[in-house]
Amino acid sequence: MKQKQIFLLHLFYWLLIIFNGIIAVSVYSTKGIGILDVTIFLANFLGFYVNYFFVVPRFFDPKRFYLMIIGFFVGVFIFVIFRYSIEEILLPSLTGYRNYAEGTTFLYYFYDNIYYSSLTVFVSTNLWFFKYYSKIEAERTRLIEERKHAQLQALKTQINPHFIFNSLNNIYSLVYQNSDQSLSAIEKLSELLRYSTKDLEKDVISLDKEIGYIESLIGLEKLRIRNPELLVFEKNISNPKLNISPMLLVPFVENAFKHGDFRDKGFVLKISDENKMLHFYLHNFKNQRMKDSASGIGIENVKKRLDILYPKKHELNIQDLESEFIVDLRISFPYENN
Asked: How confident is the model at residue 335 (pLDDT cuts 50, 70, 90)?
């Protein structure tokens, strides 16, 4: 709860006390507001904030409930002390007027004021609890957000080395074969690295940039594939400036190239953003001769990021079949934020 809201709660309470006092005076008194009414308000105010700032913080301990009960009675006692000192000591010495008959014992005075003091102390204590637990909740929320941010940064830093490793493997293969396309592949990789170095530091990038990564990656991979025309990429984007976490879709495409069978087969990749829904679909055939124990790093990375970034707003279906691999990802986006 913000400081402004805490202040408004206090203000509302005191306006309620003043309003109640005015109503009581207008109903039960013909003399209007007198010195006694002022002293009662002053005792309330002092007792309220001494309890709020000093007593409750001193005695509050969730593990020792009895301390809080003791603190409550200490607050009541302090309230009565304030009121007794003002009405039965200070006021008579200044004006000769007192609230209770002369000779009234403190014990009777205390007993007679338990109700009024308890009400004031109860409200004061509860407002302190509101402030305390609101602060705890705000701190908890802040820590959760910081943890999410740290997790995302850690996950994003995992992507770049993985991506570089896979791309260098492809280029190594071209160089090893003395392919004329190796220089072109190095150039395309440098373009991809410029993109990733600049944009991985950001929380979000535009969808058209993410698709640009994918198109560059496909262009790089086509250099080593015998039948590049079998790589089918369809996109239907109506909102290219839609914000998305960087490198969220690329790992799926990267995984397809790393473990796919492209001897006489390709893949089908479709990306659309119709009806406030980003839809990513990828279907490729698996290379049965290649088994890599680290093949799931990129996809597991994306799963974790999706859970953090889009909880209950995404649906990821992966079919890991004997000879095929299908990814169907849907993410609901609040378009009003774009």
From this structure: very low
Range of the domain at 168: 142-337
Is the per-residue pLDDT at 103 higher than 80?
A: no
**pLDDT value for 233:** 94
Same domain? For 97 and 166 the reply is no
Q: Which of 42-51, 104-113, 312-321, 328-337 has the highest mean pLDDT?
A: 312-321
Residue 337: pLDDT band (50, 70, 90) is: very low
User: 124, 141, 158 — which closes off a domain?
Assistant: 141
pLDDT per residue over 213-253, tens digit each? 888 888 877 877 788 888 999 999 988 888 888 888 988 98
Provide the b/e sequence for 131-155 (b: ≥16 CB within 10 Å): beeeeeeeeeeeeeeeeeeeebeeb
CATH number at 326 reads: 3.30.565.10
Indicate if 22 and 147 belong to the same structural domain.
Answer: no
Verify that 163 and 181 share a domain, yes or no: yes
Number of domain units in the chain: 2
- Residues 185 and 265 placed together within one structural domain of the fold: yes
pLDDT in tens, 151-193: 556 555 555 565 567 677 777 777 777 777 777 778 777 777 7
* End-of-domain residue from the set 126, 141, 156: 141
